[in-house]
Amino acid sequence: MQENQQTICTAFLCKTDSSSSEDYNRRLLIKLQTPTSLEKCDAFTMSFVEYSDVIQDGDVAIVYLGIDSTMPIKVQKGAQTQTRYGVIRHSTDLIGQRYGSKVTCSKGGWVHVLHPTPELWTVSLPHRTQILYTTDIATITMMLELKPGSVVCESGTGSGSLSHAILRTIAPTGHLHTVEFHQQRAEKVAEEFKEHRVDHLVTVRNQDVCKDGFGVTGVADAVFLDIPSPWEAVRHAKTALKRQGGRVCSFSPCIEQVQKTCQALMDQGFEELSSVEVLLRVHDVRVVSMPLPDFGPDPSAPPGPDSRGEAPNHASIALKTTTPPREIPGHTGYLTFATKPRT
Amino acid sequence: MADNGDEDSEYRIKVGDCVVLKRGDIFKAMQIQLGKKVIFEKQWIFLDKTVGQLYSTTFDIVSGGNLLPQKPKNADDASDAKEAGTDNRNIVDDGKSQKLTRDDIETLKEQGLKGQEIIQQLIDNSSTFRDKTEYAQDKYIKKKKKKYENTVTILKPSCRILAMMYHGREPGKICHLRYDTLAQMLTLGNVHAGSKVLVFETCAGLVLGSVMERMGGHGSVVQMYPGGGPVRAGMESFGFPAHFHDTLHEFPICHVNALLAGTLDTTGKHSSAVEKQSDKDKEKEQNQPEAEQAGEQQDGPEDPNMETVTAEEARVEKEKKEKEKRKEAKAQEKRMKLAAAVAQLEGRNADGLIIASRFHPSSVVMGLLKFLAPSRPFVIYSQYKEALIECFTKLKEHGGTVNVRLTDTWLRHYQVLPNRTHPLLLMSGGGGYLLSGTTVATDTAKPSGSQRVEEPAAKRQKLTDTEG
C-alpha cells in the first residue's frame, strides 16, 4: 500500500482512506489540484511571508501581553477573545486597526496587536510536539544556505515552528516539502499553513520518511531532519537532494544519535560534516544598588571642602547591569550539517 | 560530467565570477580574472584553469601555480594494512622517530610528489607510526594532510561561507560579528523577499550582502551609511546578479536629521554654483565622448608644433571643462540616488532595521527607528554589552517598542568520531551581543506611566535587598 506513494494525492489518500476525515481529504485534493488559486495573497492581506498594515477579518494576529507572553488570534467579525487584561472585541478593537496598535481591553488593561512573524509564531503556537526555537532555527537557516527560491525537504513537521521560518525565507519562489508521519499533526499543520496564507509554498505529506522518503527526487537544495532515527533517513535525504549537490541538517538531542547520523552521512558520501550546539543567553537589564562599606571616619584624609565630617550612612552606588535568568534552557539539541557533493 | 552540460552551465566557473577559495577551514574571496596571479595561503596561483570547471571542484596546485582538477576520490586512500599499538607507553618523544629530514622532504616536494605521496613517505619513515594507536594514527595523518596537501577548492559564495571567512580571517573588519550571531540577526529581523529593510553597518558590507541574499532581489534595501560613501566590499563578494543592485539604495546618515525635519533638498536647485553651470554645459554634453578622445590623442605623442601655446591652452581649458562635466554628472547621479533613497524612507514605513556598527548604538537606533512602520522588527548588534544596555534603557524611556531583549549566543563545535566524540578543545569566547525588538504605534496613545511587565528594572529592584 505504501510502496507506490509517488504523488501527494495518493500518499494522502492511502493514509486518510481508513480514517473518517473525508472532509479534510477532499479539501486537500482541492488544494492540490489548484495549489495557488484558492486564496490569492495580495499585498494588502496578512500573510506569514508578506507584511500588511491593517488588521482584517480572517487574519491571524499576535496579541502581545508582555515579554514571554503572547497569543495568536484568528480575527473574526463579531468574535471575542479573553485575555488576562479583559476581553478583546474583534470587530471594534481589531478589524481596521493598524498592526502594532495598542488595544485597551475591557478590564482597562491594554495589549499590543502585532503582525505575525515566524518568530512570534514560534513563541505562541499551540504545541503538539517539542518544537524548534528561534536560536536553532536561525542557525539552521544560515547553515542550510536557505534563501528565496530554495527547495527544502523537512521531516518531521511537528508543530510547524521551523516550517514557518523556512517558508518565510524561501518565499516567493521556493517550495517546502514537509513529511510528518502522524496523521492528525499533518492535517492540523496543513490547516495552519492555509490560515497563514503560505499553503501555496508547501506540500504536506503524511508518511514515514524513514520508510518512504520525502516523496520527491533530485529537487531539493536542502534537507532538514528532526526525527528519532535520522540515520535511517539519510539515504532518502540524498535521493531528495539535487544531483548538483546541497546541504543537509539533522537535529538530535542525544549525542548517540549524532554519532550514528554522522556515520550514515559519511557512508552516503556526504562531506564537510560539522556538528554544533548553539544556545541563547538572555541578559536581563536592570539597575542594582550596591551599598558602600562604612570604615568609619578616616583621620588621615584631608578635611573635605564640605565639612560633613563622615560619609553618609546609606551610601550606595546604582549600577546599570544585566543579570542572567535563574534558569535557562541548557540544551536543545545538536545540529549536524553536511554537504552532499555532486553525484 | 560532460553529459548534460546545459543543465550544469549555471554551476560552471566563469571569468569575472566572484568565488571563494577554500582549503580546510581557510577561505578567501576572489574574483576570477585571467592571467592574474593571486596569493592564497602564501602561495602564488593562477585561477585561469578553473574557468569552465564546476563549482565545488577541488584542484591540485601544480608547478607554476596552475590548478589541476582532482579526479573524483578513489574509495579509500591507503591505510589498509592496519597495524596499530594499544597505547603510547612505548612511545618516547626523542625527536628521532622521523628518519626523513627537512631537506629530504623539500627534495621530495621538488621532485613533484603529491601531498598524499609525501605523507606515505613520512609514515614509511616513521619508526613509531606502527606503535601508535589507531586513533593516534588517524590524527597523525590528518595533521600531515593539513600540512602537505596542496589543494584548493573553489566555492560559490554564500552568506554562510563569507560570514565564516570574515570571522576567521578578518574579524576586526566586521566588528567581531560571529556567523551565528549574524544568523540570529537575519532571522530576528524577519528579513525576507518583498520587504523594505534598512541596514546600517560598518562590517565591510557583509551584513548588507547577507540581507540582500535573504531578499533574493525582491523588495528593497536602504543602506544608511556614515562618512563619505557606502562600504560594500563584502556585499560585492556575494557576486549578486545585476538586478539585485537595482533594489539597493543608499542614504548618508548625515542627512537623517534634515530628512526627518522635512528640510532635505534632493532637487539640488539651491545647492551650488556648480549646478548652474551644468545648465549651460548641457548642450555640449553630447560631444563629451569625442572631446575626451581628442584630449587623449593629444596626450599621447607630444605634438612638436609651433601652435603649442594655443593648443595647450585649449586643451587645458577643455580638460577643465571635462572634469567639471564629469563632476557634475556624478553630482547629478548622486542627487538621483539620494532622491530614490528619500522616496524609500519618506513614508516611514520600512519593514525592518538591521544595525551592526562600531558607532554607539543608542543614537543610531533612536535616529533610524523613526523610519519603521509599527509592528516591525529591529535588531542591533554591538560587540559590547554595555552599549546595548544603555540602548535598552533609552528605548524603554522613549517607548514605541515591545519585546525588547538583550541576548547573545554561545556556540560550540563538536568532534564526532566513533568512540571519540567530544566538544572541540577551543571555542569562540563570544560572538557579540544583540538587542532585538518590535516597534509599536505611538501616535494613538503615549506610553503611560503604568508600564507593566516590560520593566524589569522597576519590578526587580528589590533583588539586592532580598539577596543581601
UniProtKB/TrEMBL annotation, chain A:
Keywords: Acetylation, Methyltransferase, Nucleus, S-adenosyl-L-methionine, Transferase, tRNA processing. It catalyses: adenosine(58) in tRNA + S-adenosyl-L-methionine = N(1)-methyladenosine(58) in tRNA + S-adenosyl-L-homocysteine + H(+); an adenosine in mRNA + S-adenosyl-L-methionine = an N(1)-methyladenosine in mRNA + S-adenosyl-L-homocysteine + H(+). It is found in: Nucleus. Its EC number is 2.1.1.220. Residues 294-305 have a biased composition (Pro residues). The keyword DNA repair does not apply. One of its GO terms (cellular component) is tRNA (m1A) methyltransferase complex. It is an enzyme of class 2 (transferase). It holds the Pfam family GCD14. The keyword Methyltransferase applies. This is tRNA (adenine(58)-N(1))-methyltransferase catalytic subunit TRMT61A. It comes from Solea senegalensis. The lineage of its organism: Eukaryota, Metazoa, Chordata, Craniata, Vertebrata.
TrEMBL record, chain B:
Keywords: Nucleus, tRNA processing. Residues 70-96, 270-332, 443-468 are annotated as: Disordered. It is found in: Nucleus. InterPro entries: TRM6 (IPR017423). The keyword Transferase does not apply. Residues 73-96, 272-287, 312-332, 452-468 have a biased composition (Basic and acidic residues). The keyword Kinase does not apply. GO terms for biological process: tRNA methylation. GO terms for cellular component: nucleus; tRNA (m1A) methyltransferase complex. Substrate-binding subunit of tRNA (adenine-N1-)-methyltransferase, which catalyzes the formation of N1-methyladenine at position 58 (m1A58) in initiator methionyl-tRNA. Belongs to the TRM6/GCD10 family. Heterotetramer. This is tRNA (adenine(58)-N(1))-methyltransferase non-catalytic subunit TRM6. It comes from Solea senegalensis (Senegalese sole).
